[in-house]
Amino acid sequence: MSAVKPLPFVEARPSVVFVDDDAGNRQAFRSAFRTSMDVHTAAGIAEVWQLLATKNIHVVIADERMPGTRGSELLAQVKERFPKSISQSPG
User: Fold this and answer.
1) Is CATH 3.40.50.2300 the right assignment for the domain spanning 22-88?
2) Band (12; pLDDT cuts 50, 70, 90)
């Protein structure tokens, strides 16, 4: 009989970055989900890179219609640079 292997460490709460240029949307997302997950918000791509470089982020959600970089473009870059993060665009 083989020894039972311990499960890998799993953090208690998922960590998510919500990316939107609209401050009201960022605040609404934080308010809605702050009790069930660690919520980080970003207004643009520079903030996303900083968060991904310094935090253990599980999921990235990005608005598609942002000035400069579209959400889908940002998520493609996230997937390439941080493949362990899950990326999602709500629209």
Assistant:
1) yes
2) confident
